[in-house]
Each structure stands twice: as C-alpha cells, then as structure tokens.
Amino acid sequence: MEGPAATVDRARPLSARSVIASTLLGVEPPRLPGRLLVRSGELFGISEGTTRVALSRMVNAGELELDDGWYHLVGRLLTRQQRQTASRRAEHRAWKGTWQLAVVSAERRDAGDRAALREAMRQLKLAELREGVWMRPDNLGSPADLAPGAAEVVAAQCRWFAATVPEPDRTSVELAAELWDLGGWADVAGGLRAEMDEVIGGLEAGDPGSLAPGFVLSAGVLRHMLADPVLPDELLPRGWPGAALRAEYDNYDRAFKDTWRDWFRSQL
C-alpha cells in the first residue's frame, strides 16, 4: 500500500544543496541568479562560501547549469520540477472504469533494476497490488505523456494491460483503498492546511521572519501533492482534501513569493 508523504522535519538543519534545490523547484521557470540563491541560504544560516561550493558541485553533478551568473535546473531535478508543476494542477480525464495494469515480464532483474522500477511506478502513480503487479485507474492518460523517462523504465521490465475490477467480488473503491493509504494522505493534508493557516498571516504582512519556516512548509506541501495518486472522484473518500489543499497552497505560495521578493530587494 502506498502511504502518505511525510511532513518536513523542521528541527533538521537544511543543507545548502536542499535550499538551492527547493528554491529553484519552487519558481517558474526554475532559473535564478547565484546572488539570490546565496541570500536564500543565508536565511538558514548557510554562509555564502558553503552555498557557492554546493552550487559548483550541483553543476558538476549535472543537476544545474550555469549561464552568465544564472543557475537553472537540468536533469532529474528539472524532471521533478515538471512533475511538481503537474501535481499542482492534478489534471485528469473522466474515468471509464478501466485500470492500467503493468506486470513484470523481465526474467532477470538485479536490485538496481527493481529500485528503478519502483521509482518509475511512483512517478507514474501506480501502486503495487502484489509482487510484480502494478496498477491504477486509467484516468491520467498515457504513461509516456505523464513521465517519459519513467515509462521507458517500465517498458523495459513490464508488459502493459487494460483491466477491469471483477465486481462485486471487490469494488473499485475497495481496491483503491487497498492500494493507497487515502486516509493517511488526507490526514497529512489536513495538518499541512492548518500549518499554512498559521504561517500565511506573517507572509501576507511581509514579515521576513516568516520566510524560513514558510520555505520549509512550502517544500513539505509540494512533496505531499506529488504523493497524491490523483484518483477519479468516484474512488475518493467523501471530503477528500486534495482540491482544498491546492487552492490554499496557491494563495500561500503567492504570499510567500511576494515577501521573499521584497526581502531579496532589501538585501541588494
């Protein structure tokens, strides 16, 4: 069963890489000048030298590219940002009752192959019914359109099928509840909504002291939205908070970015 995303541990110090990545993941397009990334690090007590070392290492690792003093995401971080953007929209088509089914067909797989498949399935929002059998309602479209790289990994190890649930032996609602911890996801979403409600007042007032906790909370909300299976409405529990979380985050994100921009201008 797929569990909910964990909230951010606020007591855990953030690394320079985490601050850089989260900052760029949260802007569109994911491109900022080095001096702004340095200032973002300073919000968390990270020195300029430490941030610039992290920037250099991320460039060398193929996570960032540098262009005339500006850094932008590339590689897997860019792919994550694209998935993150899609998760904020949570677009899905009308469901016709069929399921996507992927069954492992590769005869020999090492631990690396298995780990790559699990990550690919997570990106494609499939859950594991049993060993080697993955599925989800067919309401998101083609895997190749949703996450091309992940779809290639699955295609190398699995065969795709269309399936229906043999009701009344087990309803689709029951199967969805078995595959995903929907109650757990909803509980975490409720906690995140309450935290945003506590922090947004300071952000709307332009309080720079709200930026550091607001930054960490923002990363937690984005991570949790990525973990939403985006199921058809027919399969969701009553009172599902997905739409409310996204709407409230849009307001929160605007307030955070307004305060963040004002703070940055004051540092120039």
Notes on the structure:
The protein is an alpha+beta fold. The protein has 3 domains: 16-79, Arc Repressor Mutant, subunit A, CATH 1.10.10; 99-163, 2-Layer Sandwich (Alpha-Beta Plaits), CATH 3.30.70; 180-267. 55% of the residues lie in helices and 12% in strands. Strands 5-6-4-7 form a 4-stranded antiparallel beta sheet. A 3-stranded antiparallel beta sheet has the order 1-3-2. Helix 1 crosses helix 2, helix 2 (34-42) packs across helix 3 (48-60) and helix 4 packs across helix 10 (211-226). The N and C termini lie far apart (49 Å). 32% of the residues are buried.
Query: Strand order, biggest sheet?
Result: 5-6-4-7
Whole-number tally of structural domains: 3
Please tell me the overall pLDDT.
91
The class by helix and strand makeup works out as alpha+beta
Radius of gyration equals 20 Å
How many DSSP E strands?
7
Oligomer: single chain
N→C terminal distance: 49 Å
Q: Percent helix among the residues? A: 55-70%
* Count of runs of 4 or more consecutive helical residues: 11
Unreliable spans are none
Strand content: 5-15%
Helix and strand run: HEHHEEHEHEEHHEHHHH
Shape: globular
Note the main sheet.
4 strands, antiparallel
Task: Describe how the helices and strands are arranged.
Blueprint: H1 16-25, E1 31-33, H2 34-42, H3 48-60, E2 64-67, E3 70-73, H4 75-89, E4 99-104, H5 111-124, E5 127-130, E6 133-137, H6 143-146, H7 148-157, E7 158-163, H8 172-179, H9 182-204, H10 211-226, H11 242-267
Antiparallel strand pairs: 1-3, 2-3, 4-6, 4-7, 5-6
